[in-house]
Amino acid sequence: MSLIHSRNRRNVISGYLFLSPSIIILLVVVVFPILYVIFFSFSKFNYGQRTGFNGLNNYLTILTDPNFYVSLKATVVFTLGSVVGQVLLAIVFAVVINSLKKAEGGIRLFVIMPYMVSMVAVGVTFRWMLNTEFGIVNFLLLSLGLIRQPINFLGDPTLAMASLVTAHLWASAPFATLIILAGIKSISSEIYESAEIDGAGFFRCFFSITLPLIRQQIFIVMLIQTMFSFRHFPLPYSMTGGGPGMTTKMLAVLLKEKMSYLDYGYNSGLSVIMLVITLVIAWFYLEIMSKSKI
User: Fold this and answer.
1) What is the pTM (predicted TM-score) of this model?
2) Which end of the chain is more exposed for a tag (fewer CB within 10 A), N or C?
3) Residues 199-211: pLDDT tens digits?
4) What crossing angle do the helices spanning 32-41 and 264-291 adopt, rounded to 10°?
C-alpha cells in the first residue's frame, strides 16, 4: 500500500515539474503584468515618473471624463455590429460550403484567406478603397451611374462606423465560418435523412436541426469575437484613426492616445476597467452556456 502511495506521489510531483515551465511563463507573461497594471492604476504620475499613491482618483477621473463614455459607446456599437454580422455571415457561408461537396476544399481555402491578412494591412487597404478622391469603390459607383458625386465614407460618422464594421467582417468572418462549419460537420447525416423522409424541406431542416445543434459553436464564436472586438485596436487606428471626431475612437484607441500624455496612472486605470468589462462579458456568456446546457 505504501509502495503504491509513494509511486502516486512521485507521479504527482513529476506532473507538477512538467507543468512548471508553462506555469512560470504564464505568471511572468500574464499574471505579473496584470498585477503591475493594477498597482499602477492606484498611483500618481508626473511626466512618466511615479510620485506616490493616488487612491481611486485615476478611476474617478476616467469615470467623469466625457471622452470615456463616447469611446465606450463606439466600442459597444462596433462590437455588436461585428459579432452579430460575423455570426450571421458565418452561418450562411458554412451552410453554403457544406452543401458544395465537390469544391468544398478549394472554397474553404478561399474563404480562410482574408483571415491570414494582418488587420493593419486590412485597415490601410480599405482606407485606400474608400478614399473620396481615388478610391476604387467611389470609382465603380460613379462609373455605374449609381451616384452623382463621391461618397465620403470615412468622413461621415455613420458611414465611417459602418465601413469599419464591414472591414472587420471581411477579415474576421472566415474564422467564425470554420468554427460553425465544424459544428455542422459533426451533425450526423442520418438525422437529415430521417427528416427528409418525413417530408422536411431545407428551411425546416435548418431551423429544426442545424441551428439547434450548432448552438455551442455559435456561442463560442460570440464569446471569442466579443472579447476580440471589444479590445480591438489595429483596424480602427489604421483605417480611421478614431475619426471623424470620436465616432470610431474605441477604448483601445483612446488608450493609445492617452499614452502620449505619459499619464500611466490614467492609462492603467483605463486598462483595468477594460479588463473588468471583458471579464464580466465572458462570465455572462459562460453563465448562459451553463444554464442553457449548451
Assistant:
1) 0.86
2) N
3) 778 888 888 888 8
4) 120
